[in-house]
Amino acid sequence: MKYKDTLNLGKTAFPMRGSLPKTEPERQAKWYEEDLYHQRLAQNEKKPHFNLHDGPPYANGNIHIGHAMNKITKDIIVRYKNMSGFYAPYVPGWDTHGLPIEQQLTKAGHDRKSMPKSEWRNLAKDFALQQVDKQRSDFKRLGVLGDWENPYITLKPEFEAAQIRVFGAMAGKGYIFRGAKPVYWSWSSESALAEAEIEYHDIDSTSLFYANKVKDGKGILDDNTYFVVWTTTPFTVTASRGITLGPDFEYSVVKPAGDTRQFVVATELLNSVAPKFGWESYETIATYKGQELDRITAYHPWDSEHEELVMNADHVTLDSGTGLVHTAPGFGEDDYNVGTKYGLPAEVTVDSKGYMTAEAGSDFEGKFYDDVVGIVINKLTDAGLFLAKEKITHSYPFDWRTKKPIIWRAVPQWFASVAKFRSEILSELDKVTYFPDWGKVRLHNMIRDRGDWVISRQRVWGVPLPIFYAEDGTAILDEKLINHVADLFAEHGSNYWFEHDAKALLPEGYTNEHSPNGEFTKEEDIMDVWFDSGSSWNGVLNTRPDLDYPADMYLEGSDQFRGWFNSSLITSVAVNGIAPYKAILHQGFTLDGKGNKMSKSLGNTISPLEVADKMGIEILRLWVTSVDTSQDMRVSNDILKQVSESYRKLRNTLRFLLANTADFDPKEDGVSYQSLAAHDQYFYALENNFVKDVRSAYDNYQFNDVFKRVINFVNVDLSAFYLDVAKDVVYVEAPTGHARRSMQTVFYKILTDLTRLLLPILPHTAEEVWEYLPYETEQFAYLTEMPNVEDLGDTTVLFEQWSVFMSLRDAVNKALEEARETDLIGKNAEASLTLYLTTEQQLWLKDLNADVRLLLMVSQLHLESLESAQNVEDFAGWHITVDHATGQVSPRDRLYHDDIGSDTDFPELSKHEADIVREFYPEALTEGLE
Q: Average pLDDT of 436-457?
């Protein structure tokens, strides 16, 4: 019989390598075959609800690493909540309307203008649903459980109807109106854009300084005086109708040397602009406050049919320019606001595609707006009004889809008022909890500063604006009429709007005083897609009986403060006076390993599906918890390889625990906490605190804290101490002896607790481990509950005692290392330690009541009083000597013993070992040991 046959060497069929790319899809198939998602919900049916409402990704293209971060985080939360006493459904959704799908159809060779709108929309619907199917498969591969066969999709009739009802309710309260305010206009998309559809990039622009001659100085300025204005958008000079000054700023009238004219410039900016104009010296004729020059008029630089009005407004600054801002009410929000105040028209000289119109003048007509800088300069020069130009670099808005710059352009649009109920929105967002909490300030500022929401789009693929027009052009915004349209959409879908004329869409017999002949037309614009997703609280939460409104949480990237968080808040408060969510969890963006934004053109993107195929999705899920999602996060193949090492360590630890509890029945063999060996009792309590800390981190959505605590517990507490010590117990001691069963009790608790704690993050691995736990009755680990924190009484003294032991252990390890350096010993097992203890240390050791020799992993330990010490080195308060162990080495436990050979039947073993072998391996008496 071999010596190793008398050891309790743990055995398990749990594989060392996970083969995750192969086994994960197999395991996921089993989840769906067994309908694990609904099994878990059925189990929680009578529990309190937790509803995480899914922000809909856009149904176009492959999923990317940002999608994976988002969906995996949601899955972690939902799984944890379901295992923590909540009924937590997860209904995934998709955003399916909008320009990107129309662009894909165009790329595929379809011509929108060559077919009826309804036919184009059917093509778009088919494409969108194909994308939904593809992305659904991809999201499921991430290990995300949810109601995948019954998602919400914004193109579905029931969702569109609910969206129309939101619009109707807002119209009924007077929040919907039509105006010609300047909006973000994308000439590349030929449509208005919402703020959420804008991104900013730095560009170089040509700014111009030029003069406007006074026309009527109101007795203050003579007609030889010129206002010096500044513009960064030269094309808008064609529609300039005013000059805006700061009412409280001081303006100087100056006469440059060698010039007969006088010029008005903000006093504070004179010294900076004079050199630009070649004014080597000048005489100040007079100074005025901006309010004193109010309503003076000036000539347009070249358009004799228009004059320009001097106005006052607070948006003027002295940061740059001249302190006089050229004002074109049709091309800017500030310009429009001040122009409206002074009664100026909002004229537009650029068409929907970005080309100058006839109203701009014959020199400009037909030219692209960004190509007319030279013409503007020439006309100013010919009129003797051009002063200077310079290149400036500034941040400028771009269409987020086409990546082209936009312009502000006043066109008739439909708006949702924000100003009318802004205070209510701000009040409601204050009641929301934010993770992290700085999100509150960000959302507050965005709502505080945003203008009215332009909700109309000049496109085809979307939910139509349910607005009718009477014969005299009056827009009909009747809530009952709008709800009638919602009923039609619920039955037929929104394509019904484009398949029928206005009369067929109106209730039979409908009349209106503005249409004496009974003739009506309908709106052809569609809604902003942010109104689609922004209505999901009504289209999903209010229509599904297992969901709740408001939701417990919305979770998306921090860009959604401008998007979904924003639009959902506006519509919900507008209709019901409450926020649609109780909490917001917002995340940063994913960057490459060097901190750069990911881009296909840079070749630095990482496909989550490729990670799944090469490494396993568990690695990506673990990475999600390893990073601080409150800020931008880096990911690369090298980073994922580091994460895979952490996974390997976790897996091997679970495997070790499985192997060494394979013969342990927790009901039959378990040892009570009070009866555990001292070191096991300490570790039981330590693990109990670990459970408490990890659950607290989960509860506060601090998933990187979960990761850190798990890794630290496994690497430091387990591997570097407890499991290292354990081999001298679980391998060597009697199979059913108290020492081994005591430690196995703790092993089993760690194994089952750790498996359940890891399940939200590593569901495939946790379920695999569960299959090797025969005494756990639930078919799936996901059908169990999170481990509870046990009441072990006051453990303060316990942890204080073991803190002292850890200081002793550190001191001993240092002493052993010095002994190794002098070749006195090799391994720790070759050492014989002598501890010279103070009276206080002796009392501590007695109270500890632990096998310190075992825990220090040496062969022999001697205890002496400090008074007997002579020339003994002090290691951080511990007096220690190290000698080579005496006696002989046992081939069974590899330790030195002085009593080897005392049992003649087993001459190579210590007496303790011989007793174990005789009782549990009696065949060794006849076969012998080798």
A: 91
